[in-house]
Amino acid sequence: MIPAPIDRSVRIREIRDASFRILSAHGPKALTLRRLAEELGGSSTLVTHIFGTRSALLRGITESAIEDYDEEIAQLEQGADARQRLRILLEWMLPLDEEQARAERGRIMLVGHSDRHLGVTDFSLRMEHKMRQLLRTHLRELVNDGEVEDTVEYVRVFTNGVVLSAAERPSSWSADRQQRVVDQLLRRLGIS
Predict the structure, then answer these.
(1) Which residue intervals are the DNA-binding region (predicted)?
(2) What is the reported pTM?
């Protein structure tokens, strides 16, 4: 029997999601190719066929996450005006459900890992650059040109703070509470 061909992009997403589950639950040291294969329910070749080394895995899950962001956001924002698009983006950046919270805890664990040769620093820098780029694009339509960069800084500090707070104390940061503070932020920016 010939095995069914795998869709490489689907497999990469599966590996990425499993990697963030491991990171969230056990931290960066637990993210090994063997542990990842176990999480996916198969042999190590399930992972090594796509990513031959741990370093390649970290680069790959970073690239996969960043590549998917534009598509995810575009789908969410279809038909929305500029204010609605900003609100959608802000909510997308926050861990409003358990799956998103788990992924954020995994990213936080990864960013907190200081092993530079594994590409973690690159992961952190690329993610931060992408988040700021998305904010900049959304804010250009809503604030004066001279205020865009300061507003990006302000909103990024806000989102980082909410994400970290929700990851540290999920029982205190329900989706409803996160959405209420987004409402407050938008009012303070004069964008509500």
Answers:
(1) 32-51
(2) 0.79
